[in-house]
Design a protein that fits this description.
The chain has helices at residues 15-25, 28-31, 38-57, 61-84, 90-114, 119-145, 154-161, 170-181, 187-217, and strands spanning 13-14, 164-165. By secondary structure, it is mostly helical.
Length: 219
């Protein structure tokens, strides 16, 4: 099977995604010579997810923190490996999506119960996390694609021009979770993630409306 040199799905990445993607690249020539498939990596990550659930439920927070980063790394590897080995498929895409949905929803339910945070914060996380994903996928991104040009400003533009996306996403969420799991301030995992998703969603709508107004006024 011929490997694809152009496996990256886009030119810009979120910073932690960029680091792990560049790290993963070193393994691809070796993996390309093995029968290991991207779906195998996804299944391996599902098993890792179960181990992460067990670690957080049994209050082994340091282990859970490490396994979260393993999850993030493998989540980046499977999609990029699929493009590298020309093995992209609808099954693989759906498997990866289901894996992420189950992991990020169930992990934070278990974490909330484990650290004994008030149940309202668990529910708020579940609502905000899923609402953010649905809104970005079904409203914001489709409207951006209708624009002839999308202008970013300030720090977002500077970083974008240097290949880095600035915003809240699962990678940033994983980094915050990993760091705070090593501290006595585990409740702040929920507080910070909820606040950042809300702020980012509001800014993305502002940014979208700004660009739509620019295009409308250009006619």
């Amino acid at each position: 099977m011929k490997a694809s040199k152009h496996f990256q799905k886009r030119l810009q990445y979120y910073w932690i995604e960029k680091i792990y993607t560049e790290l993963a690249v070193f393994f691809f020539p070796v993996l390309d010579k093995t029968p290991i498939t991207p779906n195998m990596i996804t299944v391996l990550n599902m098993i890792n997810g179960l181990c992460t659930f067990y670690a957080v439920w049994t209050k082994q927070y340091a282990l859970a923190a490490v396994l979260i980063q393993v999850y993030l790394f493998l989540d980046i590897v499977d999609g990029n490996l699929a493009r590298y080995k020309n093995m992209t498929s609808e099954l693989g895409k759906n498997l990866d999506t289901v894996c992420d949905i189950v992991f990020y929803n169930l992990f934070f339910i278990l974490l909330g119960v484990s650290i004994q945070i008030h149940w309202i914060w668990i529910i708020l996380y579940e609502i905000i996390f899923n609402l953010y994903g649905w809104t970005a996928t079904n409203i914001i991104v489709p409207r951006i694609r209708k624009l002839k040009e999308f202008k970013r400003r300030g720090l977002k533009k500077y970083l974008f021009d240097h290949g880095i996306l600035l915003g809240m996403e699962t990678g940033m969420q994983d980094v915050l979770t990993t760091i705070l799991l090593f501290t006595p301030y585990k409740h702040w995992i929920f507080y910070s993630i909820i606040i950042l998703y809300c702020l980012d969603l509001l800014y993305r709508f502002y940014e979208l409306r700004y660009n739509e107004a620019l295009e409308l006024n250009s006619y």
